[in-house]
Amino acid sequence: MGEGGSIPFMDILSEKFPHCQFIVTGILGPNTNAHGPNEFLHIPYTKKFIACLVQIVSQAAAAAAQK
Question: Fewer CB within a 10 Å sphere, N or C end of the chain?
Fold first, then answer.
């Protein structure tokens, strides 16, 4: 069975830190083949993904600072 290590690891983290929020994601762009012999990272898609992630974290930090 092809199971990555992230899923069991996140279960351990959520048990250890029950009040934390986690973002678990993988980056797949056009024509990518995850875990395949021709796996690669699509750089333009990755840049867009990182911009979205920065926005999410920034908004979460701003909301936490207002509390």
Answer: N
Indicate the pTM of the whole model.
0.64
The DSSP code sequence of 39-64 is ----HHHHHHHHHHHHHHHHHHHHHH
Residues in the chain: 67
Taking CA atoms, 37 is separated from 12, 32, 33, 34, 40, in Å, by: 30, 11, 8, 9, 9
Q: Can you tell me which residue has the tokens 């992230």?
A: 6
Q: Would you say residue 14 has pLDDT above 60?
A: yes
Nearest to 10 by CA among 63, 44, 29, 21: 21
The band of 4, judged by pLDDT with boundaries at 50, 70 and 90, is low
